């Protein structure tokens, strides 16, 4: 078997804070004199939200984010990730940083430093919170993201509960982002079905979809995604733990690939879901039966779908071809 560590990968669906190591979480809790918050014990998005709500308030200082970015980038390198595109919503941390701009400056600078140290190219996805941001605030989020375009923000995402919060009201923010050279990378087709995916591609002009797996419920939509070459940033363990799929064996990733849809493989929130990016690839091999050809194709999509500079992209794609051409031992 070929080592999946050695397969060059892009990691395109990772929420920065939930890429935290358990050891850092324990340290943050100890500093605040509270027990380490639980990271498990949920089966759906509501319970997941409660778990996250116990974790995020433990961030207190700029240095916390510097350590977080350092460790997230080092972990990516250890997974054989060559291109990392974490998402970040800085607004809960304005008291720490003083402004969203200052928060972005901190994580971007640290990502560049750590990336240079570990051989990982780091770019960023800004995010709109579909529950907490009004459409007007979303436009401000997009404007801030565009101001950091040349520094390394490459996309605009849309997070939080899809149910009751469809993509369409955020059209102005995403139009501004796309007009100014950012990728449109909303969450859709995870908690809500094909209608959310249609809204994301038709109205928000999605270049990629975070998740998108429930597109499988609508064969005509699957055809559209295959034709457009839209990349789905798929997170199998996340889908299992939030009951988006009843079992890994029933995960639609193999069917989506068979239908010609481009898919990348990702960890989403490894602190709470468990597996890191490499382990998700290993799960896809062991549990979903993906062949090395299919795993290499997912890795290609993870490079093509991201916004890596041309030289990084070419090197990664050549590395994927070389991986597949190497003998399987
Ligand atoms: Zn996500």
Sum up the overall morphology in one term: globular
Global structural class? alpha/beta
Question: Can you list the strand order of the major beta sheet?
Answer: 3-5-6-7-8-9-10
Number of domains: 1
Terminal CA distance: 5 Å
Question: What molecules are bound to this protein?
Answer: zinc ion
The helix/strand order is EHHHEEHHEEHEHEHEHEHHEHHHH
Q: Gyration radius, to the nearest Å?
A: 18 Å
CATH class: Alpha Beta
List the helices and strands and how they pair.
Layout: E1 9-11, H1 22-32, H2 45-55, H3 62-78, E2 81-84, E3 87-88, H4 94-97, H5 100-118, E4 121-122, E5 124-129, H6 135-147, E6 153-159, H7 171-179, E7 183-188, H8 194-202, E8 208-211, H9 219-228, E9 231-234, H10 236-241, H11 253-258, E10 262-265, H12 270-273, H13 277-286, H14 292-304, H15 310-325
Parallel strand pairs: 1-2, 2-4, 3-5, 5-6, 6-7, 7-8, 8-9, 9-10
Helix pairs in contact: 3-5, 6-7, 14-15
Bound molecules: zinc ion (ZN).
């Amino acid at each position: 078997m070929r080592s999946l560590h050695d397969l060059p990968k892009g990691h395109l669906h990772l929420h920065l804070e939930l890429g935290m190591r358990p050891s850092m979480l324990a340290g943050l809790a100890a500093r605040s004199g509270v027990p380490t918050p639980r990271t498990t014990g949920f089966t759906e998005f509501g319970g997941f939200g409660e778990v996250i709500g116990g974790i995020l308030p433990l961030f207190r200082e700029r240095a916390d984010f510097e350590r977080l970015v350092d460790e997230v980038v080092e972990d990516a390198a250890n997974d054989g990730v060559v291109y990392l595109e974490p998402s970040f919503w800085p607004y809960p941390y304005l008291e720490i940083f003083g402004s969203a701009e200052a928060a972005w400056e901190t994580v971007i600078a640290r990502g560049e430093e750590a990336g240079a140290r570990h051989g990982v190219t780091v770019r960023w996805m800004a995010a709109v919170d579909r529950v907490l941001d009004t459409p007007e605030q979303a436009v401000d989020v997009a404007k801030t993201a565009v101001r950091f375009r040349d520094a390394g923000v490459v996309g605009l995402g849309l997070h939080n509960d899809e149910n009751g919060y469809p993509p369409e009201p955020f059209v102005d923010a995403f139009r501004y982002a796309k007009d100014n050279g950012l990728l449109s990378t909303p969450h859709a087709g995870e908690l809500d079905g094909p209608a959310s995916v249609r809204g994301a591609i038709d109205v928000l002009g999605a270049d990629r979809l975070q998740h998108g797996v429930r597109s499988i419920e609508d064969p005509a939509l699957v055809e559209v995604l295959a034709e457009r070459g839209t990349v789905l940033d798929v997170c199998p363990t996340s889908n299992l733990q939030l009951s988006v799929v009843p079992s890994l064996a029933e995960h639609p990733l193999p069917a989506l690939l068979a239908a010609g849809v481009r898919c990348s493989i990702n960890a989403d929130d490894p602190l709470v879901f468990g597996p890191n990016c490499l382990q998700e690839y290993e799960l896809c091999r062991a549990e979903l039966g993906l062949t090395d050809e299919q795993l290499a194709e997912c890795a290609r999509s993870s490079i093509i779908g991201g916004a890596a500079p041309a030289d990084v992209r070419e090197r990664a794609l050549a590395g994927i071809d070389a991986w597949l051409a190497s003998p399987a031992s």
